[in-house]
Amino acid sequence: MYIPSHLEVTDLDKQVSVIKQYPLGVLFNYNSAKTGLLDYFKSGKPPSGTDRVDSVMCATHVPFHYVEDPEGKTKGKLIAHLAGQNQHIAMLEENANCLVVFQSVDSYVSPEWYPLKKKTHKFVPTWDFACVHVYGRAKIIHDDEEWLLGMLNSITDQEEKKRPDTTTVSEKDEDHSGEKGEVPIHRWKVEEAEKRYLSQAMKNIVGLEIEIDHVQSKFKFHQDQPPVNVNGVLDGYAKELDPKKAQELEKFTRQQYPREL
């Protein structure tokens, strides 16, 4: 990934925070071709049978859970699951090297948000985002119900904790408890699923464990702009974006800006 030095983040804690907050990653890997691209051009004939030209790439969107190395000797692991019929499984078993891409909240940035634009007009649109690229080796886990159950618990608990503590129940949507108004939410647990149903569901998935080799990340939030322009962007977030999205972008921007705003 191309990363200008002022946008590069190497702190593992910051990288992991993006993974935890935005756990839906895109898993990539490829398998080498049986027929090279040069052979294809020389023969002038398309590949036949199981031959492949150059390589085959595959991408799968997967929610992940990050597992820290308790001894701190490695960068940790990513765990997840894939549908048993996913063709990506065979590719990962043939070539374990893979890449998982995570991305934060993002936004288009209009030059109109830069106050200095009115003086110089030397600005163009840009895009704000943070991305984390995780490289590692994948292991497919078959027929291990205990491992799968632990993984499902980890991912479910991770996301259930993000739900608000309370919700509003009106007379119209009164729940079975008869409560109305502001009530505590129930955080669902995997153990609540009917046992035979859960056991059958786990037979239709395989586990995925990625031993992390190295991580690259880019956090692009106007680190090279003067404070007046950055404050203009924060104002643009607040005025034109969804409030929750604006708050998340503002948090990233303030964390990454090298000076006080």
UniProtKB/TrEMBL annotation:
Family matches, as InterPro entries: Split_barrel_FMN-bd, TR_PAI2-type
Top-level taxon of origin: Eukaryota
Pfam family, one: FMN_bind_2
Region annotation (Disordered) ranges: 158-181
PANTHER family from the UniProt entry: PROTEASE SYNTHASE AND SPORULATION PROTEIN PAI 2 (PTHR35802:SF1)
Protein name: KLLA0A10461p
Organism: Kluyveromyces lactis (strain ATCC 8585 / CBS 2359 / DSM 70799 / NBRC 1267 / NRRL Y-1140 / WM37)
